[in-house]
Amino acid sequence: MRHSLLRLAPLAASVALSGCISFGAKPPESLLTLNATAQPQPGRTQSSATARSIVVQTPAVPTALATARVPVQATAGTIAYVKDAQWSEPPNRLFARLLSDTLTAQADMVVLSPAQSVSDPSGNLAGELRTFGIDATAQQAVVVYDAALTRVNATAVEKRRFEARVPIAAIEAVSAGTALNQAANQVAAEVATWVGGR
After folding, report:
1. Which residue from 1, 52, 69, 115 lies 20 to 30 Å from 125 (Cα-Cα)?
2. Is residue 1 part of a domain?
3. How do strand 78-86 and strand 110-112 relate by DSSP bridges?
4. Which residues of 34-55 are buried (b: 16+ CB within 10 A; e: fewer)?
5. Element (H or E) spanning 5, and its range?
6. Does residue 67 lie in a domain region?
7. Phi (first) and psi of residue 9, to 5 degrees
């Protein structure tokens, strides 16, 4: 009997501890993503022989954006995060994909990967996603993108800042995702107009 109790003791301890230990944060009910309002046309073939090509680099981000969470500028010197709001992947990668779709659809450009551009002269769009979150004092979703463009066969780099602000009714996950998607599309459309202008 004593030996049986000794064998059961570790099992009982592990069951008791299982209620106290968590192996990861509880995931949110849904994840946020970005969707381009200007989408490439399905089935349409593009060729860099007849259209301009470009490489869209994933933008750099400050530390506050190097996370799947949605930052909130609470005051001039403090940052919090929207409760239960989480991106499906890093926001700079989502934004780069949205830029690629918008450039393809709106500017009629062939977006290449860095590897594909080795044998094809193309422009290069890089930059930094400076702000991608919520301004609590203004109740707005804010996207600020500092773009750096090198056009085809050019050595000079053109730089321009793009900014969009969209009002947000409440600082919560769904409203934040919707407003940031709208602001990101506004910035992407302005970038496409600039890049495709000549």
Report:
1. 69
2. no
3. unpaired
4. bebbbebeeeeeeebeeebbbb
5. helix 2-18
6. yes
7. -60, -50
Q: Please report where in the chains the tokens 């470009």 appear, as a residue.
A: 54
Query: What digits encode the pLDDT tens for the residues 51-98?
Result: 888 999 999 999 999 999 999 998 878 999 999 999 999 999 999 999
From first CA to last CA, the distance across the chain in angstroms is 87
| Mean pLDDT score, 114-141 | 88
pLDDT at 1: 53
The CATH number given to whatever domain includes residue 78 is 3.40.50.10610
**33 inside domain:** no
Query: Which structural domain, as residue segments, surrounds residue 92?
Result: 50-195
* Residues ≥6 apart with Cβ < 8 Å to 71: 64, 65, 79, 80, 81, 82, 132, 133, 134
Alpha-carbon span 120 to 158, nearest angstrom: 21
Greater pLDDT, 76 or 135: 135
- Residue 16 forms part of a structural domain: no
- Rounded CA-CA distance 55/115 in Å is 10
Give the separation between CA 74 and CA 76, rounded to whole angstroms. 7
Domain count, the chain: 1
> In terms of pLDDT, which residue wins out, 110 or 99?
99
pLDDT digits (tens, 9 = 90+) for 4-36: 544 544 444 444 434 444 444 566 778 999 999
